[in-house]
Amino acid sequence: MAETKPDKPGFLSRLFGRKADPAPQPDQAVPQAGSHPVAGGHPETMPSPPTTGADDLTAAPSTVTTASPDTAEENKTPAQLAGADLQPVEGLDPEGTNPQEPLPRIVTETGPELRPDMAAEAVPAPEPPPAAVPLSPQPEPARGWWQRLTEGMRRTSSSLSDSVTGLFTKRRLDDATLEELEDALVQADLGVPTAMRITEAISAGRYNKEISPQEVKAILAGEVEKTLQPVAQPLTIDRAKKPYVILMVGVNGAGKTTTIGKLSQKFRQQGLTVMLAAGDTFRAAAIEQLKVWGERVGAPVLSREQGADAAGLAYDALQEAKANGTDVLLIDTAGRLQNKAGLMAELEKIVRVVKKFDPSAPHATLLVLDATVGQNAMSQVELFQKAAGVTGLVMTKLDGTARGGILVALAAKFGVPVHFIGVGEGVEDLEPFTARDFARAIAGLEG
Ligand SMILES: Nc1nc2c(ncn2[C@@H]2O[C@H](COP(=O)(O)OP(=O)(O)OP(=O)(O)O)[C@@H](O)[C@H]2O)c(=O)[nH]1
């Protein structure tokens, strides 16, 4: 549920009286940084912040797994560890010793490609998964991205669709209707400025006339697409940077580790070599989870023991990746809470250390956002931007919420590129973000 609707001028007064005022202030009335609890996390169990500076880089030795698609069977990670540690938000066991911590959920992948223009193509027949990955007895038939996207976003789109249908069936477009529509859009987390823009677009030339729900949805989709178009940017790997360093940040449980796995798979399918750095040294299980992904996608994983200095690990990983001529290095980081200054300082330290090795790195800093946190995503963007200089967003779990509209609010407010969206736990459920598909899915329109 969205929060209390912020104060805003009545629709008619905005439409006729104050249209010249373009300042998109209302978003600031939406609850902001620090006003919500962060999803998950156990502040009292967080490790003490690391010392500052990049001088303590010679701690424990790192280990590198040598995963490759040809890894011998006996050397593979046991199946029971595959994807371990997948419910970090509630009941998180920072020591990684809780026998109750859920085992990995494995989903058979079907391997779509990275390019947005291929997103809607039919998914190729599933390849046999590595032996370490148990097959479900009845693999689901491959579904195209559009189908997964619309199914995943059903909760968001049906709540919007229901409002639109309820409001516009055999009813004239009057002030009250528009007011209610605006409320529904704000409730769906699209943000007040976007909600106002959409209602104004709908009312233009149609005031006091009948308008069908379908027409409203089409205008809604058009306006959402306009807002999203500038941020829908593919993640482009610059082959001249070797390794191309991607730092993954986000609060715990947002889906960073899983996203790293899914991205690695896409890079590998493009023929790129990938190395993973298990920079979430906070939890042993997170390190294991990354190793499993490394095995699955054929990417070596550089790790140290739990509690080791993450910045030192990142430095080692850079050296290793450089020495090996690796194309892409993905650095995982611990789940961080924005109100934990020490943890943010650790993130800043990782960035500093990476820059020491290569001033142009990290070449991309991707903030993974869990769509289910709704408006709290706004404050996460602000804080991670400060700590790490976010260059792009990945939004996960759009399938688990009616608050998918938050992506529109983020686009309107920050203009940070959105590279990928996730609508499920499977490898194939993460795809490059395209404005039109998302806009039509959210409006409940056919592709
Ligand atoms: N439904 C759904 N679940 C997802 C999606 N993306 C990730 N998840 C799940 O979210 C959970 C948390 O993912 P992780 O990758 O462990 O999150 P994390 O950010 O690395 O968490 P920490 O290791 O605690 O920092 C896992 O169960 C994932 O399978 C998505 O798009 N949809």
TrEMBL record:
Membrane topology according to the record: Peripheral membrane protein
Gene Ontology biological process terms, A to Z: SRP-dependent cotranslational protein targeting to membrane
UniProtKB keywords: Cell membrane, Cytoplasm, GTP-binding, Hydrolase, Membrane, Nucleotide-binding, Receptor
Region (Disordered): 1-105
GO molecular function, one term: signal recognition particle binding
Coiled-coil intervals, chain numbering: none
InterPro entries (UniProt xref): AAA+_ATPase, P-loop_NTPase, Signal_recog_particl_SRP54_hlx, SR_rcpt_FtsY, SRP/SRP_N, SRP54_GTPase_dom, SRP54_N_sf
Annotated compartments: Cell inner membrane; Cell membrane; Cytoplasm
Role according to the record: Involved in targeting and insertion of nascent membrane proteins into the cytoplasmic membrane. Acts as a receptor for the complex formed by the signal recognition particle (SRP) and the ribosome-nascent chain (RNC). Interaction with SRP-RNC leads to the transfer of the RNC complex to the Sec translocase for insertion into the membrane, the hydrolysis of GTP by both Ffh and FtsY, and the dissociation of the SRP-FtsY complex into the individual components.
Protein name (Swiss-Prot/TrEMBL): Signal recognition particle receptor FtsY
Source species of the chain: Microvirga aerilata
Gene: ftsY
